[in-house]
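ok here's the first one, seq then struct tokens
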Amino acid sequence: MSIEKICGYLLALVAAPLLLGVINRTKAFFAGRRGQPLFQAYHDIFKLLRKGAVYSTTVTAVFRAGPPASLAAVLLALLFVPFGPVPAVFSFQGDFLLVAYLLGVMRFCTVNAAMDTGSSFEGMGASREVQFAALAEPALLLGMAVIVRTTGNLSLSGALQSFASCLTTGSAPVTILLLAAWMIVFLAENSRIPFDDPNTHLELTMIHEVMVLDHGGPDFALIQWGAALKMWVLGALVVNLLVPSVAGGEIAGAGIFLGGMLALAAAAGTVESTMARFRLLRVPQLLVAAGSFSILALILVLR
């Protein structure tokens, strides 16, 4: 295990909350406001860690185990995601399936904690979360299948780093379809507009936020950090397609990759500033479109 891999992993752990700051500052720019400080997410997490937690008398150990278990799942998933040209900390043949399953475990822990409260309100959010995840996950897995088929490498780290070099002339449609599918998944899985609004508390529109209303203090800090890390993992898949490698070596490539992650966060903030949230009945249609894009990309690769 090289020092470069460990540094890349640690940098991802530290830089993940910065993506939320970039999104908020981008939204403030479009609204003509000054907005929150760029490092507001760090302040919120540290502030929550210093507080105490209050638990309902109706919850069990499932509720208390939800935040640390979901954070542990995404921390493991991050171990298999490369930091641009810097390979992932661990990799093996077929690890892309493990990454997808770990993201599913993260969701399972969050949903279980929400259901454990016995609240119909949180149960409603959990139901919506599972429904939309069932449509988003096929688009993610089929996109990974496209990369694996193109490169012939069953390791996610190796496949992402060699994807661009394996594309031939006329393969631009494959990349465009894959980027479109994964960008939709990125917004949906991170509860961003047009799928969900992380800043709202309206009963008829909440999906993810409603599931964590009963968490507070350190538990909510773990949820916030875990959400930022999940955004990093999914964003890294998108950025690695656009910035696979550079001639300047790993250091220059890592810098370009970090810039690409910040640019992706700015793009997400731009989408939130220029689009309205979809009605719940329209959300499945867009997720099905993402799956269709991945299927089309896979067909083009197989032909």
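and now the second one, same deal
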Amino acid sequence: MRRIIVDASVVLAGLFKDGTVRDVLLNSDDVDFVAPKYVASEIERRIPEVVFRTKKPEATVRAVLEDLLSAIELVPAEAYSGSIARALRLAKREGAEGDEDYIALALALDSPIWTLDKDFDRVRGIITLKTADVDRS
């Protein structure tokens, strides 16, 4: 089974629209999706914005978020702590500060990152995937 790291931009896209991103996350049987555990709190902070922009009830947004997060294995920082120093250097050098946990997890698991954030494209040694890449896998 293929393992793919999911960043917050993907989860947010799944919240904003019932489309390909949500379908891939919820219906890909041949992929293990993983993310740093803190992604849940990162998305939680954005719930008011999602509610405002989608004009959906908060309970609906939270229910969709619960479904999306149930499709993703949330990995504690201890699991990739051995890669965090290298990830910090890479992120700083490439102007991707704030993405260190995703980079460290990608390094630790030797897995690509599914993202809609172009910051990751600059990080050498990390493979990034767009939705179409994951949908074909």
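notes on #2: The chain has a mean pLDDT of 92. Strands lie at 2-6, 31-36, 72-75, 113-114, 128-129.
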